[in-house]
Amino acid sequence: QNKATILLFCGLPGSGKSTIARDVAHIYNKCGGDDRVGVEDDESMITQMDRVVIIDYDVIAEQESSGAGYGISGSSQFTSDDLEAWRKSRITALDVLKNTLYDHFSSSKKDDATLLVVMDDNFHLRSMRREVYRACQDFLVTAPDAIISFSIPYISAPLNVCLRRNDSREGKQHIPSHVITRMDATIEPPDESKPYASFEKFHLTINNTTDNAIGRKTFHDIEKCINESLQSPIQAKKECSVEEIAQMEQERERQRLETFKCKSQRIDLLLRRLVGAVGRVDKKRSKEANETRKDIIERVRIENNAGSTSDEGIVQQFASIMLGIEASDDWQAMNTPLTSAIQSSFQEFLSHNRVD
C-alpha cells in the first residue's frame, strides 16, 4: 500500500535546519530505487523513499513576491511586499502539500511506493505546525485509505550561534537580529505533553552547535522517528475534538484582542491628530483637548467596544466636547475655526490611514 511521510523541520533561523533538511532529502534521493541501501559506509540500512519532495517556504515566498529575485522592488532589504508574500506562502505551501499527496496516491505506478515530504520553515510556533498536520487530515477525508505519517525534527542551537551564522548571510538571507531574538523568546519546541499538542507525538531534538554536515547518528535518529511515525499514521479528522474546540475558542479570543488592540491604536492616532488641530487654533486649549482624548480612550476601554466604534463616532465625541454641544448635535454645521480645523485633520487622517 502506498505511504507518505511528512518530515517537518523546525528551529530558529541560523540553527541549521535547512541544511540538515537538504542533507536528509539528498540521502533519501540518492537511495531512491534501491531496495535497501547503506549510508556513509554504515552497515545500518535506511528505508526506501521512492520520491522526495522539499517544500521550502522561503522559495515559495520569493515566488509569491514577484518571481524577480528578492522582493518586488528587487531590494536586498525586507519590505511590506515581502511580508505579504510570506503570508501568502503559508497558504500556498499547504496547497502544494495537498497537491503532492494527491499526485502520489492517485498516480503512483507502484503499489507500495513511499513519498517523503520535507517541510522546511522555522515553524517556531505550535500553531504553525498544527496547520500542516490538519492539512494532512483534510486530505485524508477525501482519501481515507491513504497512509500518511507525521514527524518533527527540532533543530536546536544557542541564540548566539544562530546570530553568528545569520551575520554571515547577505541580502534577504540575512534576517534582522531582533527578529531572531524575538523568535527565540517565543519558540515552542515540539512536546506532545503540552495542551492541544498530541499531534507532536513523533519528534526528536537535534542539537546543532557545530557547522559540520549531518552525521550518521543524526540521520539514523531521524530515520527511527520516521519509522515510528509510520506505525501510527495520521487519522482523518471526522469532527472537532474537545482540544480543537478549545483551540478555536482561544484563537477567536486572540483575534478579538488583536483587533481591539489595532482599533485602539487607530483611535488614539486619530485623537492625537484632533488634539493637534485644537492646538493650532487655540494653543491654550491643548491641555483640555489632550484630557478629552484620554477620557474618550478610557471610555472605549471600559466599554470594550473599540472594534465597533467608527472613526466618525470618535470625531463626534471629541468635537461635541470641545465645541460644547450635545453629543447628538451636528458639529459640522457650526461655522467656526475649530470646526474647520477638526474637519481638515479628520480628512487628512482618513487619507493617510485607509482601512482596506
Please, what is the oligomeric state?
Answer: single chain
Strand order of the largest sheet: 4-5-1-6-7
Distance between the termini: 49 Å
Mean pLDDT: 84
How are helices and strands ordered from N to C?
Answer: EHEEEHHEHEHHEHHHHH
Structural class: alpha/beta
Q: Number of helical segments?
A: 11
User: Which of globular, elongated, flat, extended, rod-shaped describes the shape?
Assistant: elongated
- Report the C-alpha radius of gyration, rounded: 27 Å
Report the major sheet.
5 strands, parallel
Strand content: 5-15%
Percent helix range: 40-55%
Low-confidence stretches: 33-44, 67-76
Topology, element by element:
Elements lengths: L2 E7 L7 H15 L5 E3 L2 E5 L4 E6 H9 L14 H28 L6 E7 L5 H17 L4 E10 L2 H9 L9 H10 L16 E5 L8 H15 L11 H40 L4 H18 L7 H13 L13 H16 L4
Parallel strand pairs: 1-5, 1-6, 4-5, 6-7
Antiparallel strand pairs: 2-3
Q: What would you say this structure looks like, in words?
A:
The protein is of the alpha/beta class and 356 residues long. It has helices at residues 17-31, 57-65, 80-107, 126-142, 159-167, 177-186, 216-230, 242-281, 286-303, 311-323, 337-352, and strands at 3-9, 37-39, 42-46, 51-56, 114-120, 147-156, 203-207. The strands form two sheets. A five-stranded parallel beta sheet has the order 4-5-1-6-7, with helices on both faces. Strands 2-3 form a two-stranded antiparallel ribbon. Helix 2 packs across helix 3 (80-107), helix 8 crosses helix 11 and helix 9 (286-303) packs across helix 10. It is elongated, with a radius of gyration of 27 Å. The two termini are 49 Å apart.
